[in-house]
Each structure stands twice: as C-alpha cells, then as structure tokens.
Amino acid sequence: MRAGKLQHRITVERHQELVSDSGHVRKVWLPVLTTRAEIKEATTIEFLTGQIEGDTARAVFLVRWPVQPITTADRITAAGQAWNITALTEIGRRRGLEIRAEAVA
Q1: Which class would CATH give 3-103?
Q2: DSSP string spanning 15-71?
Q3: What is the Cα–Cα distance from 64 to 97, expressed in whole angstroms?
Q4: Which of 6, 9, 18, 64 is 20 to 30 A from residue 100's alpha carbon, by CA?
Q5: pLDDT tens-digit readout, 20-54
C-alpha cells in the first residue's frame, strides 16, 4: 500500500448511547479512529453481476491496518458523507484493510 495514494481523511464512528445526569438516553455516533485512506468506486464486475442497486452509491476504502478494531456495525464519514460499512477484508498479513461501504441516504 503506497502512502501517496492515501489522499483522503476518513473517520470511523461507532454508535453509542449517552446518558445525561437527568437520565435521558441519547444515541450518537462517536469517532473511534481518524486515518488516511484511498477511496475507489465500486468495480465494473460488481456492476455487471448485479450486486449494485441503481440508487445506492458504493465505494471501497483502503486503509493501513487500524490500531482500533473496526466492525460492520461502525460507519465511516468522509468529506461530509456518511457510509455504512458492509464488508471488511484483510489485505496481506495485517498490512491493510479493505472496507466496502454504501452511502447513507
């Protein structure tokens, strides 16, 4: 993974419940990890096999192996857009992580 291709700054967020002093529960997305990433659009093969729906924007984020564990319950924010994580794939032996995501409507 070449450092020059990691041009985009992304934030991985985790859904948390916060309780105020009065006992009011509020659900929020809190940042877990901020890192650099390479962003790719969904591939032509995915488009031809019908894995992509017409209205859903999908992308692939390539990052170096994260210190904090990331799960499909988390989401990514990049350039003001939120993305739900749909799949995670290890690149090499913990060299990097391929994160497949779809845009939040």
Answers
A1: mainly beta
A2: EEEEE-TT--EEEEEEEEEEEEEEEEEPPHHHHHTT-S-TT--EEEEEEEPPSS---
A3: 6
A4: 18
A5: 999 999 999 999 999 999 998 765 555 555 555 55
